[in-house]
Each structure stands twice: as C-alpha cells, then as structure tokens.
Specification:
The chain has 289 residues and is an alpha/beta fold. The chain is built from eleven helices and twelve strands. The strands form two sheets. Strands 2-1-3-5-6-4 form a six-stranded mixed β-sheet. The structure holds 2'-monophosphoadenosine-5'-diphosphate. The site of 2'-monophosphoadenosine-5'-diphosphate has 17 residues, from α5.
Length: 289
C-alpha cells in the first residue's frame, strides 16, 4: 500500500516493449508487486515497431526508465543497442530484460533464470538427462540454462535443420522429431515450442502424438520425472494436460513467467519480489481457452 500521493514527480518507470503489445501479462504482475510493497514505481507497456527499435530504446533511456522487458520481435535486435550484456545473452543470442543504470543499458536473459528457478524446486539438475522440444529462442534459453547446471541435453525440433543449428551452437545432440522416440531415458522433458500459445494447434512431436493416442503411455513414464512447459498464456496447455497424472512433476509456463518477473522486479527495484502477490495477479489475467 502507498501512503503518499501516487504517481508523483519521483515515480520510477519500468515497461515492456514489443510489437504488438496487446496481451502483456507482465503489466499486471509488476504493478501489483509495486503496490504491495508501496514502491514508487509504475509499470507500462509501449509498442515500438521493429524499424524504430534503436530510436525507441534511446527515447526510453532519455525518458529515464529504470528497466525494460523486451518481447517479440525485439529480443534479438535489441542486443545491438546494449552497452553491456551477460554471457547468457551473448551465447543465447536473445535478450528479454534491460536494466538502465546511469544511462547505460545492461542486457539479461530472464527466461534462463525463470526456467532454472522453477526446475530446481522440483529436481536436482546436475547429471540429469533432459530432452528439449523446439529450437527457437525459448529453447535456446532453456538449453543454455540446463547445460550451465550440468544437465545432459538432447534437442528435438519439427524442422531438423534448425535443430542441427542449435545442436552445433551448443555442442549437443539435436534431431528432427521423427528421428527420436525413446523418452524413457529422460528425467526432464521441456516443451519449448510455441505450441499452446495459440488456439487450436497440436504439437506434432512424437511424444505428444504418442500421448494423444494413449499408446505406450505406460512404458514411457516413470515416477519422479519433471516436465516444463514454457507456454505461459493459460493455466493448462495440451502438453501439461497430457502429462498430468502420468507421474510427472509439472512446471507450468506461468510459474516460469512469475519467476523471471521476480528476477526483473528485484533487478529494477532492488527489493525482494512479493512472488505470491505477483502470481495471484497473473493468474487472474491468464487466457481461459
Ligand atoms: P520462441 O522464440 O518463442 O522460441 P520461435 O523462435 O518462433 O519462438 O520458435 C518456435 C518453436 O516452436 C520452433 O522450434 C518451431 O519449430 P520449427 O523450427 O519447425 O518452426 C516450434 N513449433 C511451432 N509450431 C509447432 C508445431 N505445430 N509443432 C511442433 N513444433 C512447432
């Protein structure tokens, strides 16, 4: 609760930049967190078209923003505008968090932090075996984090060429979906594809096909395995529904979103994030489909 006039001339501003930005869930959770702690911060959302990214970022710095969440389609191109970046941003090639300190921009990848924070609550990662579905930006972040923690990682992707590119970049095995079907030997399964973020789209990977048909389900799953779905738009995706009740300990995408949001909150404000408040607010704003 704030016991002073708000907003006021000292109010600090953080925001999400992207294009388009119509369904930004971070807006609610960050503002709820600021309010809960009585912080003199305000979180906004701004649409910056791709061709105006550099100018837009500059304008935000001049305006005095403290931090930015960077969403599609700017996660790669923002890197060229940064003064400094973490090794994770450099290796992954994507940045979704920018901290502005005395006019200098420092880029982070909070997806890595969000995924690892949630997975570590469920399992040890060192020397565990993980299979990651997908080879886009989200997959690169998860793969980077898992490798840093000492996991053995295999990547499967619909488009084999993209899988191979990721595999070569990180020095790991990577295949097209059809080339692989033995999920038994994995402790952790991650959906890092975009399947589930839009309506009416099924995953075409072998694991999901097997699950949809219900075939071989018993031999595929053991107790104590962990699944992570990076899709955060709703409570349950087809992927999490399929894995529920099959012995998997599930990390939902919205849990990962809150964990990465908590990291941003602490980076931008210097205060410990009220995670429960942020989570409750986010859940109210998830899609119902
Ligand atoms: P993000 O940055 O969110 O990871 P992206 O870079 O567009 O988004 O990557 C989307 C990922 O989801 C890709 O791995 C994509 O597979 P392709 O490389 O074959 O395009 C995967 N994907 C998207 N739709 C899919 C579907 N219906 N079935 C399986 N994989 C899909």
């Amino acid at each position: 609760m704030r016991n002073y006039p708000f907003p006021n001339p000292e109010t600090k501003i953080c925001l999400t930049i992207g294009h388009p930005v119509d369904k930004q869930k971070s807006l609610y959770m960050h503002n709820a967190g600021y309010e809960a702690l009585g912080l003199n911060y305000l979180y906004l959302v701004r649409d910056i078209p791709p061709q105006q990214l550099a100018q837009g970022v500059n304008a935000m710095i001049q305006f005095g923003v403290s931090g930015m969440s960077v969403t599609m389609p700017h996660k790669v191109n923002i890197i060229a505008t940064l003064d400094e970046m973490t090794p994770a941003v450099e290796k992954i090639g994507a940045c979704n968090t920018v901290h502005v300190q005395e006019g200098k921009t420092i880029g982070y990848n909070s997806d890595v932090i969000g995924a690892l924070t949630c997975l570590k609550k469920k399992t040890e990662l060192k020397a565990r075996r993980a299979v990651v579905l997908g080879a886009g930006g989200a997959a690169r972040s998860v793969v980077y984090g898992l490798l840093e923690e000492g996991c053995e990682v295999v990547v499967l992707n619909r488009t084999q060429k993209k899988a191979q590119l990721l595999g070569n970049d990180f020095g790991i095995r990577a295949y097209g979906f059809e080339a692989w079907n033995d999920y038994r030997q994995y402790d952790i399964v991650v959906n890092a594809t975009s399947v589930g973020s839009r309506r009416e789209e099924d995953c075409t990977c072998r694991l999901c096909k097997l699950l949809y048909r219900g075939e071989e389900a018993n031999i595929l799953f053991d107790e104590n395995k962990v699944a992570l779905d990076v899709v955060f738009q709703r409570n349950q995706t087809e992927f999490t529904k399929l894995l529920q009740g099959k012995g998997y300990n599930i990390v939902y995408g919205h849990e990962m979103l809150v964990a990465q949001g908590a990291f941003q909150f602490e980076l931008f404000t210097g205060h410990q994030a009220p995670v429960e408040v942020m989570y409750t607010e986010l859940k109210k704003n998830l899609e119902s489909w």
